[in-house]
Design brief:
By secondary structure, the protein is an all-alpha fold. Helices cover 80% and strands 0% of the residues.
């Protein structure tokens, strides 16, 4: 993958992350006046985790590709822990927002 295309992809991830963080903060501030926005906060926070999952998969499948086995065990363990944590948070936030409320 070319350096220019890679930088555009990282810029898109950064912009999406910024949008989700700002929307989460806006909804969090709105909950002070109307507690019904709490579900929107949870959905936005779950979207941040989903974006983290997509970014981790992009790093592993597009950037690293077949060099995954050359990464030290500690690095692969950290990647898997981050993937599991983001997945768990995404599932938890959406279950709380849609099922348990």
């Amino acid at each position: 993958m070319s350096k220019e295309k890679s930088s555009k992809t990282l810029m898109v991830f950064g912009i999406l992350l910024l949008i989700t963080i700002v929307s989460t903060l806006v909804f969090l501030c709105l909950t002070k006046y109307n507690p019904h926005y709490w579900d929107d906060v949870l959905i936005s926070f779950g979207a941040i985790s989903m974006l983290g999952i997509v970014f981790l998969l992009y790093i592993k499948e597009v950037r690293i590709k077949e060099n995954w086995s050359k990464i030290p065990l500690v690095g692969r363990t950290i990647w898997w822990m981050m993937f599991i944590a983001h997945s768990y948070n995404f599932i938890e936030q959406f279950m709380v927002a849609f099922i348990f409320r």
